[in-house]
Amino acid sequence: MGSFGLPPPQSPPLDPGGAGAGAGEPPPGKSLTGKIGRVAAASAGALIFGELVSLGQTVALARLLSPAEVGAFAAGTVLTMLLTTFVEGGLRSGLVQREKEVADAADTVFRASLLNGLVVGLFALAAAPVIGTVFHDETIGLIAAATSGFLLLFALTNVPEALLQREFSVRRRIIVGPAVSVSFCAVSVTLAALGFGVWSLVIGTYASYAVWVLAVWWLARWRPGRGRASMRIWRELARFGSPVVVNMLGSRVQTTVEAAVVGRGLSAAALGHYRYGQRIAQIPVRFIVEVGAFSLFPAFSRIAEERDARRLAAAYLRAIRLTTAGAAALCGLIVAVGEPAVVIVFGERWREAGLVVVAMAGLGLGKAWMSVSEEAIKGAGRTALLNWQTAIELVLGIGLLLVLVRLYGLIGVGLATSATALVVGVVVIGLARNVIGVRIGDLIRAIGPPLPAAGLALAATWLLEHRVLQADTRPLLTGIGALLLDAVVFVIIYALVLCALAPEAPRAVLRLAAARTGRRNGASPDAISVGAEPLASREPN
Fold first, then answer.
1. Three-state SS across 241-261?
2. What is the pLDDT of residues 305-325, one digit of tens each?
């Protein structure tokens, strides 16, 4: 589902306030570190499975559908994707962050979301002919009309997703994402093979949304009517969530403008290449957001509620250090082998998508910085600061897009995306630093070492691939083997340089492993130190 631009299932949790407890709820008294660890581990496993399914589905659809058909679906869903922001309305974030009257808040969010979904869905249906006119394609208008129903289904996920996220639900991570991926893959690939063309994507997405709704409602064990909805609570939630809405809206507007510029200014086929390239370039983003960020928001919220500034700063530094290390490595590898990898996996006709992947490589690192910093800002209750992020991202993103697309065509769109993400990522780190009180020196030590390590590994691997191996010129199996060799070389060089620049990195990994082992062996949580601050370790599985 997320492969073609629609919002994927969000990570979720349970309800300590009684609004939906039960779905994998850990025993009381366990540490936030343990809860985050459990969710992160479950998220990683589920995401790897989901990505494998998604990769198979993406390869199959790339062989069965043309770039123009993929582009038509992306264009037809551009309005739907934009309007999901209004359906969510920031209320989900408000419910996750709230620590009182949770049952009443859940009922309030449910009613407001349902109304939003109905109204916005009808608006999308009415506006569908305009979408067809903008892209000069009647089929795109029909797709826009047919997909307007996604908005009502999306509205039904708000409350159960928020309740699951509140309680760091492990079952949500290992059940919902994989189920959604499998349902979309099975339906869309089958229908594409039967000749349904672009409509296989529409029907497949409906199937995945239905699975999403059923799964989260089953896991959350929440039903409307357990609390009392009120306008007072709605105003409080809306006040908290309004900057979040503006932030999401800015991102959606930017994506919508990109689709309009590429689809109308270039071609539907170019939009198909762009969507596939974007989908691959976002792999680091999905790992960061799905594995860590959604767990960090409720964790930061609870630490901030305890008014423990030192613990909050230490938690933020650990999170930004780990996400930077992972994102820098993935982005460097994408630049080194992105183009040949796309050609080998999807076929020669998708080579332009491979170039887009390389141009958009900075997206992962920028979004990593934004993701962790946004969760810290929201957790501290300072959501108004996100308006700065929204304004800069929107103005800079659209400005660079309009300039670079004229200079470099489709590649310019990717470059604009990368540059915007990196600049805004730095800005949001600065905002989070002021809120949390992190020293600049500590921040530089956290995010600095992975960058030169990734740069050196990138340079060596790029030379190996493009000057020696040239995987995309070889038979399929030989080409895959060459790509694997590229990846091994990259990882070895990156790890060696990172250890030389930041020798504490391997020690931190060993401490985490020792913490998990010690906890399983019954060691006292107080005896285990993770990072710079003693925290209780992960609870046993």
1. HHHHHHHHHHHHHHHHHHHHH
2. 667 778 888 888 888 888 898
